[in-house]
Amino acid sequence: MDENKTLINLEDDISEEDDPIVLNKKTGHSSKPIKDIEVNQSEEPTTSSSGRTAPANSGNYPLIDNDHPPLLENFTPPVPRESQINGNAGSASRDINNLEPIFHLRSRTAAASTPNYESLDYEVCENTLFQDEQREQLAERFSLRKDIIRWIIFIQIGIITALIACSIDIIIEELSELKYQFLIKSVQENVPLSDATEGDLVIPYLYWLLFSILPVAFGAAMVTYIEPITAGSGIPQVKSYLNGVKIPRIVRIKTLAVKAIGVITSVVGGLAGGKEGPMIHAGAVVAAGISQGKSTTFVKDFRIFKAFRDDHEKRDFVLGGGAAGVSAAFGAPIGGMLFSLEEAASFWNQNLIWRTLVASIISVFTLNIVLSAYHGLNDFTFTGLFNLGKFDQPLKFDYFELPIFMILGVSGGLLGAAWNSLNTKINKFRKRFIPWKIGKVIEAVVVAIMGVTLACLMIYFINDCRPLGNDPTNNPVQLFCEDNEYNAVAALWFQTPEATVRSLFHDPPGSHKILTLALFTVVYYVLSCATFGLNVSLGVFIPTALVGAAWGRLLAMVTFYFFPQAEFLHPGKYALIGAAANLGGVLRMTISLSVILMETTGVESSFFFPLIIALISAKWVGDYFNEGIYDTQIQVNHVPMLTWEPLPQYKGLTAQKILSSPVVCIKLRDSAHYIYQMLKKCEHNGFPVVDNVEGNRRSEGRVCGIILRSQLIVILLKSLYVENKRFWLPETSIQTFRDLYPRYPSIKSVRKLDEKINYTVDLSMFMNPSPVRVNPHDSVPRIFQIFRALGLRHLLVINNENRIAGIITRRDFIYK
Amino acid sequence: MDENKTLINLEDDISEEDDPIVLNKKTGHSSKPIKDIEVNQSEEPTTSSSGRTAPANSGNYPLIDNDHPPLLENFTPPVPRESQINGNAGSASRDINNLEPIFHLRSRTAAASTPNYESLDYEVCENTLFQDEQREQLAERFSLRKDIIRWIIFIQIGIITALIACSIDIIIEELSELKYQFLIKSVQENVPLSDATEGDLVIPYLYWLLFSILPVAFGAAMVTYIEPITAGSGIPQVKSYLNGVKIPRIVRIKTLAVKAIGVITSVVGGLAGGKEGPMIHAGAVVAAGISQGKSTTFVKDFRIFKAFRDDHEKRDFVLGGGAAGVSAAFGAPIGGMLFSLEEAASFWNQNLIWRTLVASIISVFTLNIVLSAYHGLNDFTFTGLFNLGKFDQPLKFDYFELPIFMILGVSGGLLGAAWNSLNTKINKFRKRFIPWKIGKVIEAVVVAIMGVTLACLMIYFINDCRPLGNDPTNNPVQLFCEDNEYNAVAALWFQTPEATVRSLFHDPPGSHKILTLALFTVVYYVLSCATFGLNVSLGVFIPTALVGAAWGRLLAMVTFYFFPQAEFLHPGKYALIGAAANLGGVLRMTISLSVILMETTGVESSFFFPLIIALISAKWVGDYFNEGIYDTQIQVNHVPMLTWEPLPQYKGLTAQKILSSPVVCIKLRDSAHYIYQMLKKCEHNGFPVVDNVEGNRRSEGRVCGIILRSQLIVILLKSLYVENKRFWLPETSIQTFRDLYPRYPSIKSVRKLDEKINYTVDLSMFMNPSPVRVNPHDSVPRIFQIFRALGLRHLLVINNENRIAGIITRRDFIYK
């Protein structure tokens, strides 16, 4: 229902049919504010599904209609307002136009030209076939077996996600090491060491350019031409999927391959981004791949795990995969579990969460083993990819520092909000002026060149030499410095961003000049802003943390410069708080981010409090201005994400105000021909099944269930008609429907019903007999809660006589 | 509905009424398995609400009726089976007895003589008054203010919970120190130091007895005579409350006071129990007290936070309070948050969880400050009450140890299951043979004497002398030992159980003899089993961890004795794994327990994996035998807790099989007299409101809402009749109903309606117009999910014509 592309013209004649199909477009509801939305929506440009579209949300749709009488007077529960509810057989004064409401299109969603995101079918369809399976399982102790298999899959998800994360990490580390070693050698060869003020940096600069442009161009080309969905961090996509939106191609193996190569090339190319976001996406793909036991990319069906082939099970596995990805990325198993919960869980299912936690812990453990072995460590002390390093001594703080932390938090919120806003503007510009594919690749290259050039300029113009020996940087560069000194600016740039974060946390006080760090902060702020939104696979976590750590440390240094007696100004501590504040300001993820930071930095639980103060201040200040970067991306792409609470505009409304009507219904026993024609003519995905129908006035029947488009197509494909029941009944089970999951064929692949034109379909065995139903006068906050808590796709609105009044889908909750 | 005490005989004449009320008891449903349950249930002994009743669950109710036709043939969704659904006006062949079904009692629940636990009204009643308030709040930006107040309350909860925890902890520590110092002095005076084999232990023994008996008797008497609900750890009660069951008197300030004194006396008295469980209960009381802005104990209404006076808000605050309590007890803020979630959350509400986390962190922070100041520490490194101490160096493990950890887990599961079973048997015995209050006090004293005597015997007969110097015990006793030695047995006993756990984790290898530890394990296992279930306030966490740590360390020592070359056998590590395994085996809490252990011990994230392995093995092995100790307690008390998943017996059933019918209904406009009589005659708590009623055939009307007993009583009390509308309408708001929360008066406090006998009540303004409705053929697992996810109290079952077919409440899901 959410996914109708364009208004379908049903007025074309369908005259060969036995049921004359009459179109009844909803017209002239001028008092309904929804109408305005339709118009606005349809004026918006259609977006590609590349995850990189321009925001077109004007944001001022008038939803609250003040002309409408207030609720109290309007309150007559038993009899719904007839003018609003179509197909109400009990109403006396019915519109003359509605006399034959055989076949309706819910015109609002049909008219909306937003991209065709579908919802997941998270609701289990408990039809007769499902019940049969349940009974069989009761008998065979099948349930226990299924449970054990589920555990095995979760453990596999943890292990494989960690292995993929390790591979990516090791490759990036090796290649970066090669690159920066070569560059340092080149610098040392071309700049005479003794003459610290002169030297030719052109050749190293050109090498640097080359080693940036090549991988970035390759990565951007792969992403752009092969799989555009892999652009960006992948977290918004996974978030949307877990929220219940079907994002096409997001969990394919091809996507994983492109993403892995994309992230390697981008990080090695030196773009301002991290590999953590893509890890989470990788975990999701692994989960979906393993749990389904088949791959569309390789056209291979392993014929295992068949019982898990539905949206409900798949989403649960992807939840575990996302958690395993976060855990691997940050070495934070509890944070991983909470990330998945925060993004996904509407219903707290203890078993699912327990499995998710185990997958997370196994993922961290596997990563520990592999990376410890790789780094030649005896114990498993290597934790996570984003290893911030343990602080030498427990971080301490004094009471009077708490206000300082709060100020840092506020700064983080302001800077983060500005970053989000700037980034959104850049991406809007991009979308508008760079529509061509080749342009997107060139743009990535340009940003890479910009980064290298700025870094080179900084190294060339700033003279920041420090004595060797107390710096943990692997590759000290002597460039322009005396013997026994190294160039602190080059040290910041000649490593991966992640290593720079570590330096900022752990370098001893006085490792950098104030000017160095100030310029570095500004440059990296701009660079990271320009980078996020390029058509490359890159996460936003590391650059954000880096910028925050830089200005946090900077602030401590500046303060210490003016108040040299303030010994509490441990620069590493302030770098950590700054990173937290900046992350809070940009990402606005709250619970899981706090826990991830706590786990990653391994601070004492007494230091949670300063972290939380910084995070909360940053989030609240940032929320005053705009939304988090992930949510902004989701909004820009018009993904119909359900929020946590119903939007405030909906607070006083009733279901009546947001439902879509009229509704296309199907009779419990309906003709195959009607179903075929209907599926061809409209693009809805769920159809109420009605009974007690007089003639063809379907929308006046009593609701007895709901059936999905995909189920109807399977019924037609497999010819499950009443007339030939004896052929298919014995061997038809719920597995017949699962076999075609997840890519059900479209109605076009169903042959035209020639000889079967008069056959009948009896839906009583296939339909979901327990759809969730609400009344037209139920309040929107209440039905929103039901919708979200149960993970629904369709919510039927019925009147007090159990006749359909309308249907509510995800999209009806998200107009702003 | 869940709470009817006895079968009410409505056949007594009510002849003075204008509506003749006819009883229609459900009789002779011999094909309904429910009937068997009723009989069984009513044969069970009634239980007191003291939380300490005997289990009477025979556990073999035949719920799946094989005589019943299978579902497939039975599947006719539109027309429910008439014989089962009463009051179906559409059915032609109605029973002659049902011709006048004016007033029905749902006899099943009425007949069950289980204790009268009510459900919380977690579902928000969105009646017209509520909607009015919502609209006002929209206008006044009230919503933001309410949100800020909510935050303030959560912060207060964190602070006050921590302060209470600190006070209890400090008092216990000081008193214990005094007690054990005195005993040691007494030992040293009475046992000649030079003569290590002789000496008179009788006087110290008598002193010890005195210092045990006095506080234990005092605590037991307080609990028994003043507030019996404070017995035990309080976790089962908080768990039940969070699950949605109204446990009387659980969140009163009086309860908190008795609990605090009770736990101090019991721990100081030396019983085998901890103070952690009671902390959680204390947090819950604090939360309920602060958020309501009034106290029943002190009969004081502060006239603040009036908007939060309903079950929904209160439960959310108690969630935060429980989390703050756990956090304070274990220094584990994330664990605290997860504990509350695991026990309570059915619907994942991001804001609530965020507030809970903040309350937890603030609680830990406050505790840190106070206890650090008390202990004279400069930094805030004191974490939690249950401070296991940090391990000196990161715990390491080798691959081949993983199977050993698993074996430890299995042992923990077996020992835990045995402990639970033994404890249940002891409590059954207690319940049967010690019904008198004074007996319960004496029993506690006897257990205290037993503990002291066993400890003295161990100290007397075991000769385990260790050189002084490398033992972290505060009070080394030289008793029977050479100079420069101390008695290791006395060291184990002469401190609080918590300190003993710390010793077992951190004492260097070779601190005890194998025999010492083996005997200690056995003695403490039995003692803790005898203690849990006494009428004293004590938690089970510490003794369980202590027993586990003891046998874990013992195992490492024994293995090391046979394989002295096995250097990996760090006894502290095995003590930790043993404690985890034993906790997993006894408590069976999974997610939060893992996280609490991880946070409390502060181990590296790589060590999570061994912990999880031990916990999972223990839980799974234990679950094979019985349930966790908290769940056992809950079951024994017949608390109608909702499980996570529907019970397997319910898998193939439909709503029809579990609903209660007939149902007592009220007309939308009904006579005050009818309502008054009905409330007097039956004890249900929710009544469907119907419309389109012919005469008095109420149960044939169309459902348009539901109204609670408490609302009806307020309507009668305040005389909110149609006839005098002009007097009350302007000043009646949702606050009118909240003012009487939480202790609504009973119907007996409503004066007899003399002059108002013909007045009418119009429920359209008061009723909840959006009750959740399901159909009789909906499957039980599905409606269970809806019921749990939405936190419902009543679920209306309606047929396809929107007439009431039955009602489902919490109790209908929990028959086993």
Automatic annotation (TrEMBL), chains A, B:
Keywords: CBS domain, Chloride, Ion transport, Membrane, Repeat, Transmembrane, Transmembrane helix, Transport. InterPro entries: CBS_dom, CBS_dom_sf, Cl-channel/antiporter, Cl-channel_core, ClC. The keyword Transmembrane helix applies. It is found in: Membrane. It is a multi-pass membrane protein. Residues 10-20 have a biased composition (Acidic residues). Its main location: membrane. Residues 1-58 are annotated as: Disordered. The keyword Membrane applies. Pfam families: CBS, Voltage_CLC. Residues 659-722, 767-816 form the CBS domain. The chain crosses the membrane at residues 151-172, 205-226, 256-274, 317-340, 352-377, 397-420, 441-462, 514-534, 541-563, 575-598. Residues 39-58 have a biased composition (Polar residues). Belongs to the chloride channel (TC 2.A.49) family. This is Chloride channel protein.
